[in-house]
Amino acid sequence: MNPRKLLFTVATAFALVAAACGGSPSSNNTGNETGTLTVWLMNGSAPQSVIDGVNTDFKAKHPNVTVNVEIQQWSDVTTKLDTAFTGSTPPDVMELGNTLVAKYAAAGALQDISSKKGSFQNSGTWLQSLTDSCTYQSKLYCIPYYAGSRAIIYRTDLFAGAGVQVPTSMDDLMTVGQKLMAKYGSDSRFSALYFPGKYWYAAAPFVWDFGGDIATQSGSKWQGSINSDKSQQGLTQLKTLVSALSRADKTGDEAKQDQAFAQGHIAMIIANGWEVGVITDPKSGDPSLLPKLGAFPIPSHNPGQTAPVFLGGSDLGISAKSQHQALAQEWVGLLGGTKFQTQMVTAGGVIPNTTTLTSLSSGLPAIFASAAKTSRFTPNSPNWASVESANVLQDMLVSIFTGKSTIPAATSTASDKITQILNG
Amino acid sequence: MGVAGDARARVSSGPHLEAGPWRQTFARRALPYALIAPALLVIVAVLGYPLVNLVWISTQKYGFRELIQHQGVFIGLQNFATILTDPQFLYVIRISLIFTAVNVGLSMLLATLIALLLERVSRPVRILLSAGLVFVWATPVIPAVNLWQWMFDYEFGVVNWLLTRIGAGDYIHHNWFENPVQGFAVITIIVVWGAIPFLALTLYAGLTQVPRELVEAAQIDGARPWQVFTNVTLPIVRPLFIILFSLSTIWDFGVFNQVWVLLNQRPNKDYFLIAVYSFQESFRVSKYGLGAASAVVMVAILAVVSIFYIRETIRLTNEELR
Predict the structure, then answer these.
(1) Cβ proximity of A92 and A328 under 8 Å
(2) CATH superfamily of B79-321
């Protein structure tokens, strides 16, 4: 090999090494990376203005990188994620429901970002329960994105018309509902409290409020406890409420409840904060309802207290197979950082990922944020996602509400199934 | 009678072949295989490989972790033992068989009636009817099921509105899917509606092949319409009936889209036909091994139907030869 050729080879090698380093986090200010960053966000999570804002800021730093944000639907996202992670080119960044993270982290689909935690804004003040959902075996696999909790949205005008106040206990909720039914119930489409049969996340507060739970863990073994006396007490209370106050589809899910509410024949629904936006959407809902909407946390059976609610929310994960780790981290950091989290609160009405911004909530969102103060989470197991996708709890509720099985029989079947899946 | 003619020629030339030199005989015998080899290769690649893979996965513990790592754990027939002792799976099989019987029966019956009607109506009416059938056939399944879903919707459905309006009772907020019998009735309507066009048009094409003079001769001899149908028409179109019957069975036993889309991708357990069950176990609960095992059972059951169909076909061919 002549010296000239050798020099060339060495130079090429250096160039290659330099190029390889270009993708590493140490040099993310270079701005000359190219490629496409694929991002999956869920339907209804971030307002388009926020997504556009993040992309504009990201583009300013990396003009040659194309960001491809694709919106996914909740109903089939697990199937799509499973398929994507199996392939060699899954999306670089994806929004994951907080109950789904454990499954993908345990399977090795997500990048361990424990060492980068400090580089994310507000990582010291992230919401504890979301950080917990991102943590699997003491390692961090995603960053918190936003939280959401459910409360009751109600029509102030209908309440005034029936001469009732916001209820302060579950019994009171029943009384209020009955008065509403007496006043407006002759309209055969009217529901005082609209409760579709499969709406598990609205049923959970009743179980928790009486001291029941979905499953309990001792050691590494899970045991379903939805059939415990306390859980059954909560479900009995719920069934009484639903049979007296709801004319919703006993086998339906909550997907269409906002459109139904916007039609004007419903006094109360149990909903997420962001659903106010769907109800008052000019296209799918009715904007004129906005001044007539109020909200209050689901009351506890103990007067004066509120029932624990499920703390829902989403996290942002980076796939382990992504070729653009540094870019992905940067994009995620922007959406999870102060600037855009502030916009998520003001424009999106969600609970932000950091406690330093929760005080920004005002009006209705503030009520949802306060409802989240007593919150609970689903069993933190990689197999929980399968319990959700097998519709175990939804099927149980449908059997109970339609009267196909008794509460003891339905809960016992569900509990066995939960035990089996969680220990699977 | 092309097939019968070829067969006779082959039979008569048999002894002649035996007498030829070995090499020549081999070449002649190998030729047919060489000719079907390309087709066979494609079939093996397109159908054989997935089938073998399916059977292979059904013998493994194959969950989401295994999927990501592309590596399952061999557990023999354990998946089969699990599903075949699971009361839910046995219920699924029973429901699927009943569902298939009802749907095949109804769609064949209605399709035959429509085909007979097509044969009798005047030309413009026939064109109109056929066009209608083709439109139904041309509608993609998913949008079609979505339309049906809206019609039977609990809150906004036109069916509930219409039934109430014409005084059939109070159907405001009637839930068609609370009682599985009613729910399956709706699914049956959708499946049969989608199946009729192909069956009716094919049967009509078959009926046009029945010689007019045979029918007329029977009528002159005093045969009643029903007798003409069972004694003259039916024997002639019988092979076609068997083919359509087998195809319908295969389609209706594998019904998936109608249930899945109609019930918002979250059907409850009452509505688990075997294809839905298999999909749920595999892609929802991420137990691909169990899902594959149930799919193998499904293939096995359909194989029985196919064997029946192949035997019938062979029998018919032999009858023709005689």
Answers:
(1) yes
(2) MetI-like (1.10.3720.10)
Min Cα separation A295/chain B (Å): 24
What pLDDT, on a 0 to 100 scale, did the predictor assign at position B1? 37
CA separation (Å) from B235 to B106, B114, B245?
21, 19, 15
Residue A177 near residue A193 (C-beta atoms within 8 A): yes
A254: phi > 0 → left, psi -120 to 50 → alpha, else beta; which? alpha
| Residue B291, pLDDT score | 93
Instruction: For residues B66 and A317, give the distance between their C-alpha atoms in angstroms, rounded to a whole number.
Output: 21
pLDDT at A30 (0 to 100): 55
Q: Would residue A349 be called left, alpha or beta, if left means φ above 0 and alpha means ψ between -120 and 50 degrees?
A: left
Main-chain phi, psi angles of B116, to 5 degrees: -65, -35
Q: Which of A249, A386, A389 sits opposite B154 (nearest CB)?
A: A249
What topology is assigned to A31-148+312-371 in CATH? D-Maltodextrin-Binding Protein; domain 2 (3.40.190)
User: Is residue A408 within 8 Å of A207, Cβ to Cβ?
Assistant: no
Answer yes or no: do B269 and A395 touch at CB < 8 A.
yes
Which pLDDT score, from 0 to 100, does residue B31 have?
87
Q: If contacts are CB pairs under 8 Å, which of residues 395-424 in chain A contact chain B?
A: 395, 398, 402, 421, 424
Contact present, A196 and A204 (Cβ < 8 Å): no
Strand A309-310 relative to strand A375-376: parallel, antiparallel, unpaired?
parallel
Residue at A346: amino acid letter: T
CATH number of A150-310+390-423: 3.40.190.10
Looking at residue A3, its pLDDT comes to: 47
DSSP SS3 for A263: coil
**Which parts of chain B sit beneath pLDDT 50?**
1-15, 17
Which residue ranges of chain A lie beneath pLDDT 50?
1, 3-28
Alpha carbon of A106: minimum distance to chain B alpha carbons (Å)? 8
ipTM of the complex: 0.71
Strand ranges, E, within chain B: 60-61, 73-74
Q: Are B77 and B296 in contact (CB under 8 A)?
A: no
Q: Do B266 and A107 touch (CB under 8 A)?
A: no
* Residue A226 at interface with chain B, using a CB cutoff of 8 Å: no
Let me know: does A262 contact A284? Beta carbons within 8 Å: yes
- Give the per-residue pLDDT at A10: 47
Query: A-B interface: how many C-beta pairs under 8 angstroms?
Result: 74
β-strand A65-72 against A35-42: which pairing, if any?
A: parallel
| Residue among B180, B96, B142 at smallest CA distance from B257 | B142
Residues of B with CB under 8 A from a CB of A: 63-65, 67-70, 154-155, 170, 172-173, 175, 177-178, 264-266, 268-269, 280, 283-287
CA B188 to chain CA centroid, nearest Å = 14
- Give me the residue from A103, A252, A395 closest to B64, CB to CB: A103
* Predicted TM-score (pTM) of this structure: 0.78
| Domain chopping of chain A, boundaries | 31-148+312-371, 150-310+390-423
Predicted pLDDT of residue B189: 96
DSSP string, A39-106: EEEETTSS-HHHHHHHHHHHHHH-TTEEEEEEEE-GGGHHHHHHHHHHSS---SEEEEETTTHHHHHH
Both tokens of residue A392?
């175990």
Q: What residue ranges do the domains of chain B occupy? A: 79-321
Q: How many angstroms separate the CA atoms of A294 and A289, rounded?
A: 10
Structure tokens at B150: 């809206």
pLDDT of residue A74: 80
CA-nearest residue to B266 within chain A is A391
Token duo for residue A252:
């339906």
Give CA separation, B318 vs A37, B3, B241, B245, in Å.
64, 11, 18, 21
Contacts of residue B246, Cβ cutoff 8 Å, sequence gap at least 6: B305, B306, B308, B309
Give φ, ψ of B216 to 5 degrees: -65, -40
